[in-house]
Specification:
single chain; three-stranded mixed beta sheet; binds arginine; alpha/beta
């Protein structure tokens, strides 16, 4: 049998990131955070700079949101909003420690002149929403169980006019959708099935028969917390098995070291919001 590796085409992206200048673990709102473990903010900043340079070297446009003193988790820019076709569905954080971030993201989109819709329901932006423009004509996948209220899924569908598929997260270590599932191109995903209820696993198998299924070790290394342009897949360096699976499927893994931010319960995707004009 001849194996044919598909040629994957990258698509230029626009991203929003925020430097971890004020990053610290002073409260614990997910199982990865431990206030007793010291954080090296300088190291976090150095690793984050490596991520920014990687995104730039791949030819993407990268906006930087100025960090606000006191907002320790603001580096996790993915949580600030979710945009599709130039419409921004704003975030409304579950935990009071992060509430103030939403308005700072809103100001950013207002400056760009994008249509911003303020949410009534609790939701953490791209932490719990992802979009696949070429799947079923344009499909939103949405997670619930820990942060985002399922009512926000219906609200997002009304705001964005795209079908939203609700997926139930059932393992607290995978408290945001983007810790357990990622778009790897415009129509396919990689995911870790056991982070989801068995019904949601069935739904994902039906919608994405060709998905890349991650192993436990890679999922626990935050391997699925990745950013892909359709060809280049920027993922945590620790997720070596997933990198091999991606390469075998014709993608180009681009490993990045971001271990210091794992202390906050996040990795690459958490740090990167995609702007979809
Ligand atoms: N400490 C942050 C929180 O618990 C981490 C957020 C990670 N972001 C993400 N998109 N998964 O809210």
């Amino acid at each position: 049998m001849v194996s044919v590796t598909q040629h994957r085409m990258p698509r230029k992206r626009t991203y929003l990131i925020c430097p971890p200048e004020h990053f610290a673990v002073e409260y614990a709102i997910n199982p990865w955070m431990d206030t007793a473990t010291p954080v090296d903010t300088e190291l976090a900043l150095k690793q984050w700079t490596g991520l920014r340079e990687t995104l730039l070297s791949l030819g993407h446009e990268v906006h930087v949101l100025p960090p606000e003193p006191g907002l320790r988790d603001m580096v996790f820019a993915a949580n600030g909003a979710f945009s599709v076709d130039g419409t921004v569905y704003g975030a409304r954080f579950k935990h009071p420690q992060r509430t103030a971030e939403a308005a700072l993201h809103r100001e950013f989109y207002d400056r760009l002149g994008w249509r911003y819709v303020a949410p009534s329901e609790t939701n953490e932006g791209e932490g719990d929403f992802t979009y696949l423009p070429e799947a079923y004509g344009g499909l939103v996948l949405a997670g619930y169980g820990y942060r985002t209220d399922p009512a926000a899924h219906a609200e997002a569908q009304e705001v964005l006019a795209r079908p939203v598929v609700s997926l139930h997260l059932t393992d607290p270590r995978f408290y945001h959708l983007d810790t357990a599932l990622a778009s790897i191109d415009d129509s396919n995903i990689a995911y870790f099935p056991t982070a989801f209820s068995s019904a949601s696993q069935t739904v994902l198998r039906q919608l994405f028969p060709d998905a890349i299924v991650a192993a436990d070790a890679d999922a626990l290394a935050f391997g699925l917390n990745l950013v892909s342009d359709g060809r280049n897949v920027v993922l945590p360096a620790e997720a070596t098995g997933l990198a091999e699976q991606l390469a075998a499927a014709g993608y180009r893994p681009v490993p990045v070291e971001l271990a210091e931010l794992k202390k906050g319960g996040g990795s690459i995707k958490c740090c990167v919001a995609e702007l979809r004009p």
